[in-house]
Amino acid sequence: MANERNRVVTTIYGREYTIVGIETTDHLRKVAREVDEKMHEIGSQNHALDSGRLAVLTAVNATHDYLKLEQKYLELEQELARIKGRDQ
User: Fold this and answer.
1) What's a BP term from Gene Ontology annotated to this protein (predicted)?
2) Structure pTM?
3) Could you write out the three-class secondary structure of the chain?
């Protein structure tokens, strides 16, 4: 039961999608809502983009944000290790 798949039908940028994952349905909905909001944000600034290009820009934006957070996480881990090293 730990790997039970949840299914959510949602709308992203005016199109219906079924999202399936092991995360909670609330989490799946939140992911879909974030993608929809980001696509609308980017689309409102770039009216000439078709949905395919808009989706790619949204993915690039999300990946950029993820990589920045990953780098910050690694920096914080290193700082924590330095602090722990001083305390010993």
Assistant:
1) FtsZ-dependent cytokinesis
2) 0.82
3) CCCCCEEEEEEECCEEEEEEECCCHHHHHHHHHHHHHHHHHHHHHCCCCCHHHHHHHHHHHHHHHHHHHHHHHHHHHHHHHHHHHHHC
Place of tokens 């609308």: 40
Kindly report, residue by residue over 13-25, the tens digit of the pLDDT: 999 999 999 999 9
Return the number of other C-beta atoms located less than 10 Å from residue 28's C-beta: 19
> Dihedral, CA atoms, 37, 40, 70, 77, nearest 10 degrees?
-40
Environment class of residue 39 by beta-carbon count within 10 Å: exposed (0-12), middle (13-18) or buried (19+)? buried
